[in-house]
Amino acid sequence: MKHGNFLSGHTILNLNSHPARQQVNKLKYGSFYILLFACLLSPTVASAIDITKQIHRPLNNPAERLLREEADRLVRLGRQQYASGYADKTIQSGLQALEIYHSIRDITAQGITYDLLASAYIKLGNIKEAEDVLRRRIGIARDNKDFQNQIFALNNLGTVLLQKGEPKAAGETINDALVIARNLENIEGQGLSLSNLSLVTARLGDYNQAVKLAETALGFRRQTGDVIGEVNTLNNLGEAYLMVGDYQNTIGNYGAAMRLAKINFDRPNQLRAIDGLVTAHAAVGRYERALELLEQRLTIAKFLNSPTEEFKYFISSGELYEKIGNYGKARNFYQQALSLARKLEDVKQEAKLLYKINELPKR
């Protein structure tokens, strides 16, 4: 069973102590500033064993068997809805299934349904609900002495805690998963846990340790043949190198992530890698390459029909042209972003953009 991290999380980092890092901070479109649900994410439910293949508690009552079949159908439907982008409908289906599984006391199926619900809640940004169902999922895995699912549920909870801005608690939770994975000599679990710990360590400001953890994680990822996991870790490694100002290794790892993500049609990780590459190339003055990469970002955003990703393109382009000193083009991109922010009814971004436009030099 292959699992990727749920999210990478936003970071709140003070980069002003190093001149090279100031350039990174000014751009603000590096992939530390965006969610990896994406990414990041290969959600647990995407690769979980089909519910009908799970070992259910035997039911002798025909009525209960019919209930189980209905709950199984709802879980399958929820997964289809999730894959189609309807996370809200996934939650409706999952909660209905969960109620039935509770009524027939099928603990194993409840755990699987919590995985589905967690993915949907995270996609909708409902972190509190995601944390709740993940803690329930961990409880079931512990009661069942299901160490494999403990590893993945603890990792998912850790990344949720990281997203909440609780890196210390996240690190402790993910380290618990790493201990279990090491005791079981579980290569997949070690790779996932070390990769997520690299994110936590970077959030805490220890970028050199983050690099070491991600490098070690990469070896485990490659042993299992988990390509999506490898892409996630390459992106993590790119971020860590970016924070220490090692642009050669930043570009190398982000470049590898971008190529692998493209081959495997992993658009979220491809976008994440592109954003990191834009930041790195711009930091060393390779503006033409940065602009080429931004055009690739726009192509993907249009392919995905994603106004949110298109909005990020306008913002990133505006910031890059502002850095170059071409304020006319910067203003044009900011105005396009402003128009899109209004369509998206994003009041906060609208206010930020109005301020940016007003503060630009007139020349």
From TrEMBL:
Keywords: TPR repeat. InterPro entries: TPR-like_helical_dom_sf (IPR011990), TPR_rpt (IPR019734). TPR repeats lie at residues 231-264, 311-344. It comes from the Bacteria. This is Tetratricopeptide repeat protein. It comes from Anabaena lutea FACHB-196. The lineage of its organism: Bacteria, Bacillati, Cyanobacteriota, Cyanophyceae, Nostocales.
